[in-house]
C-alpha cells in the first residue's frame, strides 16, 4: 500500500510541474473560426531616384486596399489582398543628356496589386497568446502581382544641331529630339514581384481592430520603358480596420485530452488506493477475530 501511495504522490506532483512549466499553444478549433476582412486607405510612392530629385511630395498618390484572410493560430495566418490606385513618375529619361533641366516628363499610371501574405503575429510569438490583449505587432511577406498598362519601347527621333567652334568652324552632331519622340506599345502587363511589411493593431474587442500598416514592394516597373529602372520599389502606408467574423476563437492544443488523461489516471489510483485500504481493514478484522 505504501508503494501505491508513493506512486500517487509522484503522479500528482508530476502533473502539477508539467502544467506550470509547459507554455500552452493555441489553434483554431474549427475551419470556420478566425476569418477576417480588412480595409485600408493611405498613400504610396514609387521609389525611383528621379521622383526624389523632382520632389518627394509631388510623387505621393492615394492607396486603398481590401483583404480577406484567416488565422490558424494566434501566431500565424494567411491573407489575400487587392490594393492599388495609381503611381507617379517624374523623369527626364531618356533625354537627361539633352538640353538642360527643361525635359521633365510626368507620368501617372493606374495599377492594381494582388498580394498573397503569410502573416506572423510577433506579439503572440514572443509573449504568448493572451485573450483580450489590446496591442499587437505583425509581420507579413509574400509574392505580389502588379497589373498595369505600361510601355515596352520607344520611338526615338533625332535631330541635327549646328555647333560653332572657337575657330569659327562648324560641327554638326545628332542628338535625340524630345519633341518628336514618344513611348509606344502601351498594353496590360502582369508584373511579378515580392513584398513585405510591418503592422500595428489595436484590438477594440474580439471582433473589431484598428490597423496601421507599412508595405514595401519590389517588381518590374509599372511604367515600363519610360522608366530608367527595370525594377522599382513602391512604399505604401495605410490605416484601416479589421473585422473578425464571429470574434477571435482559439483553444489550447490538446488541453482537453491531456486533462482528461490526467484525471482518469488519478481516479484509477484513487480507486486502487480505496480498494487497498478496504483489503487492509478486512485483514485487520480477520486477524482480530482469529485471536
Automatic annotation (TrEMBL):
Residues 259-286 form a coiled coil. The keyword Plastid does not apply. Residues 10-245 form the Outer membrane protein beta-barrel domain. The keyword Signal applies. Pfam families: OMP_b-brl (PF13505). Residues 1-20 form the signal peptide. It comes from the Bacteria. Keywords: Coiled coil, Signal. This is Outer membrane protein beta-barrel domain-containing protein. It comes from Bacteroides intestinalis. The lineage of its organism: Bacteria, Pseudomonadati, Bacteroidota, Bacteroidia, Bacteroidales.
Amino acid at each position: 500500500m505504501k508503494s501505491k501511495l508513493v506512486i500517487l504522490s509522484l503522479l500528482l506532483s508530476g502533473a502539477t510541474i508539467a502544467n506550470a512549466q509547459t507554455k500552452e499553444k493555441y489553434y483554431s478549433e474549427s475551419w470556420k473560426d478566425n476569418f477576417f476582412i480588412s480595409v485600408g486607405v493611405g498613400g504610396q510612392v514609387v521609389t525611383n531616384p528621379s521622383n526624389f530629385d523632382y520632389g518627394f511630395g509631388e510623387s505621393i498618390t492615394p492607396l486603398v486596399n481590401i483583404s480577406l484572410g484567416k488565422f490558424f493560430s494566434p501566431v500565424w495566418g494567411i491573407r489575400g489582398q487587392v490594393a492599388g490606385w495609381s503611381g507617379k513618375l517624374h523623369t527626364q529619361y531618356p533625354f537627361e543628356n539633352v538640353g538642360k533641366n527643361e525635359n521633365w516628363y510626368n507620368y501617372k499610371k493606374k495599377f492594381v496589386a494582388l498580394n498573397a501574405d503569410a502573416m506572423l503575429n510577433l506579439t503572440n510569438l514572443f509573449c504568448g497568446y493572451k485573450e483580450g490583449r489590446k496591442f499587437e505587432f505583425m509581420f507579413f511577406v509574400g509574392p505580389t502581382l502588379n497589373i498595369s498598362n505600361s510601355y515596352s519601347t520607344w520611338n526615338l527621333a533625332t535631330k541635327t544641331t549646328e555647333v560653332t567652334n572657337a575657330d569659327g568652324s562648324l560641327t554638326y552632331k545628332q542628338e535625340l529630339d524630345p519633341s518628336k519622340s514618344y513611348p509606344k506599345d502601351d498594353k496590360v502587363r502582369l508584373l511579378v514581384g515580392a513584398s513585405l511589411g510591418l503592422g500595428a493593431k489595436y484590438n477594440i474587442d474580439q471582433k473589431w481592430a484598428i490597423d496601421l500598416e507599412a508595405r514595401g514592394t519590389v517588381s518590374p516597373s509599372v511604367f515600363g520603358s519610360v522608366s530608367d529602372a527595370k525594377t522599382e520599389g513602391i512604399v505604401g502606408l495605410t490605416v484601416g480596420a479589421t473585422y473578425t467574423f464571429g470574434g477571435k476563437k482559439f483553444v489550447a492544443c490538446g488541453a482537453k485530452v491531456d486533462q482528461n488523461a490526467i484525471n482518469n489516471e488519478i481516479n484509477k489510483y484513487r480507486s486502487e488506493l480505496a480498494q487497498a485500504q478496504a483489503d487492509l481493514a478486512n485483514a485487520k478484522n480477520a486477524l482480530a477475530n482469529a485471536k
